[in-house]
Amino acid sequence: STINLAVIPGDGIGPEVIAEALKVLEKAVAAEGVVLEQTHYQLGAEHWLATGETLPDEVLADLRTRDAILFGAVGAAPGDTRIPSGIIEREMLLKLRFSLDHYVNLRPSRLYGTVGSPLANPGTIDFIVVREGTEGPYVGNGGSLRTGTPHEVATEVSLNTAYGVERVVRDAFRRASARERKHVTLVHKHNVLVYAGHLWKRTVEAVAQEFPEVTHDYLHVDAATIFMVTDPSRFDVIVTDNLFGDILTDLAAAITGGIGLAASGNINMDRTAPSMFEPVHGSAPDIAGQQKADPTAAILSAVLLLDHLGYTAAARRIEAAVIADVETRDGGARSTSAVGDAIAAAL
Ligand code: NAI
Ligand code: MG
Fold this sequence. Notes:
Layout: E1 2-10, H1 14-30, E2 35-40, H2 45-51, H3 57-63, E3 68-73, H4 87-99, E4 104-110, E5 126-132, E6 142-145, E7 153-156, H5 162-177, E8 183-188, H6 194-208, E9 215-220, H7 221-230, E10 237-240, H8 242-255, E11 263-267, E12 275-279, H9 296-309, H10 312-327, H11 336-345
Parallel strand pairs: 1-2, 1-3, 3-12, 5-10, 8-9, 8-10
Antiparallel strand pairs: 4-5, 4-11, 6-7, 11-12
Helix pairs in contact: 1-9, 1-10, 1-11, 5-6, 7-8, 9-10, 10-11
Pathway: Amino-acid biosynthesis; L-leucine biosynthesis; L-leucine from 3-methyl-2-oxobutanoate: step 3/4
Keywords: Amino-acid biosynthesis, Branched-chain amino acid biosynthesis, Cytoplasm, Leucine biosynthesis, Magnesium, Manganese, Metal-binding, NAD, Oxidoreductase
Domain Isopropylmalate dehydrogenase-like: 4-343
C-alpha cells in the first residue's frame, strides 16, 4: 500500500525536525512494504513574506486529497515587525484546523525515565489531553468597537455547540476505555463560565452512561494547574476546551522535561479530511539553522500519524526506538540529524 503524505515543513526549526521525522518514517514503513509518497508545501511566515499568501484555497483543496499531513512549525521571530501579529496563526494554522475539521487535538504527556522533570516528585506521568480543536474562544467570534481609543470595547466570545462538545467528549471516553486506568477528567471553569461549562458537564455525564467501565471526575482549570504540578500521576485522560487545552498542554510538556519531546495530532476522527500531526513546539527562531533542535517531538508526531492511519506495527517500532534513545541520553549535545540517525538506526 501507499501513504499519500502532505508535508508542511514551515519556518525556523520546522524543516530541520521534519527532515528527521521523514527519515525515520520512511524507514519504518518501508520495512512493512509500504510506499511513502510525499508532496511538500511551502507555507508559513517566510512564504507569506515572499508571496503574501497564507493558505490559498487551491492549496487547501490539494491538501484535502492527501491521507495525512505532517507539519513542522510556522511563525517568525517574536518582535519581527514585518509580519502582523496573528496573521499566520489565524489565516494559516487555525484555518487548516477548522477547514479540515480537526476536532480532536490530541496531546500525550509521558515522562521517560532518564529525562529530567522540573518537579521534585513527578511520580509516573502518563496521560493524554484531548483538547477540542474547532470551537471555543479561538473561532474569531468577536470584534472591537472604538478601536485604539480609551473607550475601546473588545469581545472574543467562546463558541460551544452540543454537537462539537459531544463528539470530542465521546472521543475522550473511547480513548480512556482503551487505556489501562480508564479515567476521564473534565477540565473547565463551570462555576463562573456557567453556560459553556454546564454544557460540557452535562455532556460528560450523558456520554459517561455509554462507558460504564470508565470513571470520571471534574476539575476547575485553575485547580488542574495545581494538580498537574503537585500530583500529575492522578491524570489519565483530560478532556477540555480549545483555550484551556492550549495552556494546559504547554504545562504538561514542561513537567515531562520539555518541549523537544511533546507531540500532537490534529485529528478528524470522522475521516472526512486528512488529519495533521505536528510537534507542540514552534519554529524556535533562537536556535533555527544550527542543528540544535531536538527532532523527537516531530518523530513522535509521526507515530501518532501512523496510529491514525492504522499502521500500528510501524508506529510501535518507532516508539520503541524513541524510548530506547531517550532512555540512554546522557545530556551530551547531539545534532538534530544525529538524533534522527540514531533513532532510524535503532528501528
Ligand atoms: P517555540 O516553541 O518556538 O520556542 C520556545 C523555546 O523552546 C525556545 O527557546 C526554543 O529554542 C525552544 N525549543 C522549541 N522547540 C525545540 C526543540 N525541538 N528542541 C530544542 N529546543 C526547542 O516558541 P516561541 O519562541 O514562543 O515561538 C516562536 C515562533 O513559533 C513564533 O512565531 C510562534 O508564533 C510560533 N509557534 C508556532 C507554533 C506552531 O506552528 N504550531 C506553536 C508555537 C509557536
Ligand atoms: Mg499552544
